[in-house]
Amino acid sequence: MKRSSQWLSLAGGIAAATLFSAFLIGILGVLLSRNAATDNWLVILLRLNLQPTSVAPNALTTLSLLDVSLMLLFGLVMASMYTTLSLRTKVWATIAVALPFLGVPVFLATGTAGRSAVLLAGLISSALALRNQFGTPAIAYSGILASVLLLIVGDFGTAAFPRSAVLAAFIGIGYLLWLIWLLLLTLELFRRARQAAA
Q1: CB of 123 within 8 A of CB of 100?
Q2: Could you tell me where the beta strands, DSSP code E, fall in 5-96?
Q3: Whole-angstrom Cα distance, residue 143 to residue 137?
Q4: What pLDDT is recorded for position 155?
Q5: What is the pLDDT, as a whole number, of residue 158?
Q6: DSSP secondary structure string, 85-102?
Q7: Which residues contact 162 (CB under 8 A, 6 or more apart)?
Q8: Could you give the number of structural domains in the chain?
Q9: Which residue, among 85, 88, 118, has the nearest Cα to 103 in the 3D structure?
Q10: What's the CA gap between 38 and 23, in Å, rounded?
Q11: Cβ–Cβ under 8 Å, residues 121 and 100
């Protein structure tokens, strides 16, 4: 049991580190004004509001293998947190784990929907992390704030309101909090893997 916990935490830590790196590369592309294959959907939402002319009209509706990969990695991170997150409520922990995986076929079928499942899973898992003391409170709070900003302002706000620098600013803040959250998750999952190995 301890060994499987070690390997799951290690796999989750590697997945979180990979996600952190991918999202960091994405935001660096924005800062360096480079449009690249490393643009995930959150970067595209930021560009749509910050530099609308730099984004192809179908950028959010084009099937992206990068986004699918990110969703699967995110599901692995959620799975590695499940044991702790499910201490008080197995239902919500199961939903947090399932959402990224369920989002993939929805995204593949529609080309647009499904990616928001990752943000919703982040919000649920962060709320559960706070309740179940998964790592430090900074993990929970950064995850909650990032997920709310990116889900409500990024996904829903960009769809409902005209493009604006105000939306871009909130998406940018959410994106930076997302990076902090992923980094803190990486460190916590690696700590748990070391602890299980001891």
Answers
A1: no
A2: none
A3: 10
A4: 86
A5: 83
A6: HTTT-HHHHHHHHHHHHH
A7: none
A8: 1
A9: 118
A10: 8
A11: yes
In Å, the largest CA–CA distance within the chain is 54
More confident call, 2 vs 197: 197
Closest CA to 83 of 193, 162, 163: 193
For residue 65, the tally of other CB atoms under 10 A from its CB is 8
pLDDT of amino acid 35: 63
* Enclosing domain of residue 139: 2-197
Identify the H or E element spanning 156: none
Tracing tokens 């706070």 back to the chain, one arrives at 130
Mind listing the pLDDT tens digit for each residue in 48-78?
Answer: 888 777 777 778 888 889 999 999 999 999 9
Look up tokens 């005209």; give the residue.
162
Residue 67 has what pLDDT? 92
* Cut 0.85: pTM above it: yes
* Contact criterion met (CB below 8 Å) for 30 and 70: no
pLDDT for residue 179 is more than 70: yes
Check if the beta carbon of residue 120 is closer than 8 Å to that of residue 101: no
Give dist(CA 95, CA 81) in Å, integer: 12
